Amino acid sequence: MTRNFTAGALAAMLAGAAVAAAPDAPRFAPTDCPASVADIADCHAARDGNGAWLLVAMPREWNRRLLVHAHGGPRLGAPKDGDSAEDLDRYSVMVRDGYAWIGSTYRRGGYGVRSAAADVEESRRLFVERWGRPERTVLHGQSWGGNVAAKTAELHALDLDGRASYDAVLTTNGVLTGGTRAYGFRADLRAVYQYYCRNHPAPGEPQYPLWQGLPAGSKLDRGELRRRVDACTGVDTAPGKRTPAQAARLADILAVTGVAERQLVAHLAWGTFHFRDLVHRRLHDRNPFDNTGTVYRGSRDDEALNAGIERFAADPDAVATLAYDADLSGLIVLPTLAIHAAHDPVVSSQALAAYRATVEAAGRGHLLAQAKTDEHEHSRLRDATYRGALRALEAWLDTGLRPDAAALQATCAAAPGDPADCRFLPP
């Protein structure tokens, strides 16, 4: 058995009374738990030395396991106390199954995978400082948090003595393609949308390259963006009440980009407000997106679309900076289980194949297990999915046998709950 599978046993030997906190360590204070766990856990909040807010849920019947959570987004506002309560509520099944849970808001809003990864690791370290080393520690990330968790596992899996800080990694609906490949479809969407709608930016407004998302000082908000999208496409209007022109524009935009109708505004918002944060605040006003060679297909008139759409070329330094921050090397050292909803409307399940190729190219394929589930949501999977995944990870750590989709399905069906909620599929 490799060192990865003995880390839990070593942690169990070391687990015990909480380590005495350093004099300048954050003080965890009692706080209200979300209703979903209030009857079985006690919650504690603190702020770390970098300004990130931490939330801990400690089950009253703790199984001596810790779940370290990396949240998605990224959220663009300044972090606040209580921001992680929604995350805890969303993944409360983990706490109800006996896992302690800690989540960090990260030190700042906006993009930054390495920064967020450092904050995730700091949350784990501070938990250990306050409550002692758990018998096992699982790192979990969903959506953009999957990118953060995977980066955390590459940068912070081992301490300076080579001992594992985590025992396993779980990603769910994770952005595992890395930053340089994850968002180009939204840049394409901005260009396609503007070709048909001409209102983002509108003719009377300052014009700017679409890859910027917005000019740095723009006052446009999400409400106004939604109003413009509806005015052009009728996306918030019942299909039978859309004008023929609206229906035609909407059909072309969706056909060319592959974006689902119900996610159109959300993807445009990401390609607006997150792009502004990424470009102006993280990439020094440089462009990481390129559509110079893209051939757009699926519209009523592809020739006119390709002739008239805005084109932009990526700045190599911007691509390099984004790659350094958010791309993945595949050099994992911990058992890693990646689960993805087959019908995820936000992050394509093709991310599984991309990540497997990265990990296998690094020679670490034996440490990666993957499966899809027959689900249609992005931000939250079924409780049975999380429960089954965690139990399969525990079995992998106990036996050294990497689970496949059939093993995940069987483990899930044997857990408490309705077996019909278990919907694991091969990747």
TrEMBL record:
Q: Which residues form the signal peptide?
A: 1-20
Q: Which UniProt keywords apply?
A: Signal
Q: What Gene3D superfamilies does this protein's entry cite?
A: alpha/beta hydrolase
Protein name (Swiss-Prot/TrEMBL): Alpha/beta hydrolase
Query: What is the protein's species of origin?
Result: Luteimonas marina
